[in-house]
Amino acid sequence: MDDLVDFLDTSDIKSRQARIACPKRHAPNPTKPFPQAPTLNTPEKNGLVNALYSLQTRRTDNVQRWAMFDNVEMLEDSLNAAGHRALHYYVGGAEGLFYPRKRTAQAIQHFFRARTGNGDFLRYAVPFPEMRGTARFSFWVMPVGPLYVLIAFQIRVLPANTVTNNGDQVQVERVCVYDVVQHGREERLRLIRRRLQAVLPEGDLLPPPPTGPDGNAGIFEVMPTPRINNELWRSGFIIFGILQTLTSRASAAIERGRMDHPRNHGVLERVDMEVTPGYIELMRSYMIGALCGRFHKLHRYYSLTAIELPGADSEYRPEDMQVPAGIQASKIRRGATYGHLLDMAEKGSGTAENTLKRLKRKYEEAHF
After folding, report:
1. Cα angle vertex 224, ends 325, 128, to 5°?
2. Where does the pLDDT of residue 181 fall: very low under 50, low under 70, confident under 90, or very high at 90 and above?
3. Of 133, 155, 105, whose CA–CA distance to 2 is shortest?
4. 327-352 pLDDT, tens per residue?
5. How far apart are CA 203 and CA 220, in angstroms?
6. DSSP assignment of 329-346, as one string?
7. What pTM did the predictor assign?
8. Treating both helix axes as pointing N-terminal to C-terminal, what angle do 277-298 and 325-335 enclose, rounded to 10 degrees?
């Protein structure tokens, strides 16, 4: 996947002594750093630590870019060799291509091809080189203001290991937009259409032929997805779930040898899922675990994931960290134990309290 360019203050990470929960046989000594351990303060490790902190302590914050980038990169790492050749991923910046407050000319500057002092072509900008090589699908996870969208490109069949030359036109057969937020959707689609039309020529990529009375309606297809009307912070978790689904479909199509049937492999189609509070929590937990694994890899495995416990003067805000009430209710519907119900009632769950009262009445009716 393309390199992430970000400007982070690498002095933000601090190694502190902390209360952690661990097995009795494990004896960490945080006051004495291991002499051969890699450096802690790098931009990506800084981003990972901040993303992990945000995912755990502020449940209504959007997914930070480092969290999205590293989870997408780990998704790409799970592919086999054929998948790496056929699939390409790109994660945009918060104030990047589709930032609404930028003019189109300003937003696409990052995508301009590099030229020599004489004006001759030098190289294409990220993310175009891989899209022009062996990629059959390119998935762009892009912020649009306070939410995420997914843009999927199906690219013309190219022979294996082909790298097209400067000026060769590469045909994009389909451009599919996955947008899960209902409010403001039409305005976002107009913004995406306008900026894709401006930026694709910088990579010598030909969009699908225009259709419709306005002459440009065919530049992309809007795919049916789950819909949310508020709580825009959920969009990042849902978009990542959709990306997982499309990646799974593409991998299956590669294994079955169906990639040579442009519209029959079933990759870029609608995605149906029930977006329950429990699903959002599952995606959050997946991202947290993946980020921990990524940090261990970057730190050459001189690290462990630990459970941090608060001290007397810690800055913990459990009200921002606790599982929302809707998730507690969904657990009850699946069948919670009596102990779980008592625990949830003590934490303020009205649903659990009512369930306990109902169970008590049934017990009294049966035994008295």
Report:
1. 105
2. very high
3. 133
4. 444 444 444 554 555 556 655 677 76
5. 17
6. HHHHHHH--HHHHHHHHH
7. 0.79
8. 110
